[in-house]
Amino acid sequence: MIEYKKNIFFDKVKLNFFLEKIDLPLYIYNYKKIIFNFFFIKKLKFFFFYSVKSNDNIFLLKLINNFFFKFDIVSIEELKKIILISKKKPFIVFSGSGKNLSEILISLNLKIFSINIESIQEILKLYYLKKKYKKNINIMIRINPNIDAKTHKKITTGTNLNKFGINLFHLKNLFYLNKILKFNILGYDFHIGSQLTKINPLKKLLKLINILYINKKYKYLDIGGGLGVNYYFNKNIINFYKYYNQIYLLIKKYNLKTKIIIEIGRYIFCNSCVIISKSNYIKFYKKIFFCINKLGMNDVLRPSLYNSFHKIESLNLGKNTSFFFGPICESSDKFLSKKIKVKNNSLLIFYSMGSYCKTMSNNYNSKKKIFEVIICNNKIKIIFKKEKFKNLINNYE
Ligand SMILES: *Cc1c(COP(=O)(O)O)cnc(C)c1O
């Protein structure tokens, strides 16, 4: 993505001068790549709802709004962000296992496309508000199918021991209950995990869906998100077309005759964004070199939370190492990497930073959230200004 000889180019824009002026680390998005991805998704025969939690930068949400106009949210603040940027009322699906009364009430008042119900307790809460305020709303039923997505235990959501969705055993009770509650059910909803790189769990899921749909048909079927991203930049990972084509073929095979909703998050921006950072120090113990750089677990939590891998590239070659750390006072503030060459003040490029990085970042160690820029039509545009010290103290009384 970046060519470095004497000059640093990113999508044909020379960055040398800019990188000297601006505070590192910073996110750099590639507009062209993002739009390229959008056209892929446009070609699908499915309804695409963008999962806001993967990246909620306002500039990027505006792009999604212009192209797709449909969002999957998990909190009312995400909904408020979308209302802020959208002139007309977009299509909203509200997911999440812990919606509270005020959040449900706002969705009722706005009459969003669907509230995806995750428990019997939740549908009772919704009913209470529906009666009290005489409002109605469509729902989908999120089912926990007890299918292991076989990804990482911290991002699997669809087994009996996960908190998400209504257990298959409880489904019958829900239908009895709904004879009294009288909610209009748009369809079933599933989301069995994230970073799926194999089609098998989805095959199992569609087999189950087929059985459910033989008993009861709905207008929609929401199969969630989860499409995996190629963090290692190798070839043997399922690609976008294969994945969705197989799903399409299964839906045809089972003759489901329903409109399919997908809620992709991660895939949309992940590989269209890198972070540029700098090594601070190279220290060593025997023959092991430790590279301590400016990017920490406060900015990118994924490696310490999930042991996730991000490709790192160094632009100034020195000692050989795979030990990369941030400045945060925690031993788990480290990045997994292959061995690369690095020296003091090397520029470092961290790949695949567009999803679940900025949205999970925080102010631990009283660190400020960092810049985000996008390269668009040969220009560098700032889309998030680095926080100022006053952002860190404003809310104290
Ligand atoms: C997080 C989430 C998604 C998006 O998952 P990705 O792995 O980012 O594609 C979709 N649906 C629900 C309900 C989610 O919680």
From TrEMBL:
Matching Gene3D superfamilies: Alanine racemase (3.20.20.10), Lyase, Ornithine Decarboxylase, Chain A, domain 1 (2.40.37.10)
InterPro entries xrefs: Ala_racemase/Decarboxylase_C, DAP_deCOOHase_LysA, De-COase2_N, Orn/DAP/Arg_de-COase, PLP-binding_barrel
Listed GO MF terms: diaminopimelate decarboxylase activity
GO biological process terms on file: lysine biosynthetic process via diaminopimelate
Annotated signal peptide: none
N6-(pyridoxal phosphate)lysine PTM sites in chain numbering: K53
A Pfam family this chain is assigned to: Orn_Arg_deC_N
Cofactor: pyridoxal 5'-phosphate
PANTHER family in UniProt: DIAMINOPIMELATE DECARBOXYLASE (PTHR43727), GROUP IV DECARBOXYLASE (PTHR43727:SF2)
Protein name in UniProt: Diaminopimelate decarboxylase
Species: Candidatus Carsonella ruddii HC isolate Thao2000
Top-level taxonomy: Bacteria, Pseudomonadati, Pseudomonadota, Gammaproteobacteria, Oceanospirillales
This protein's encoding gene: lysA
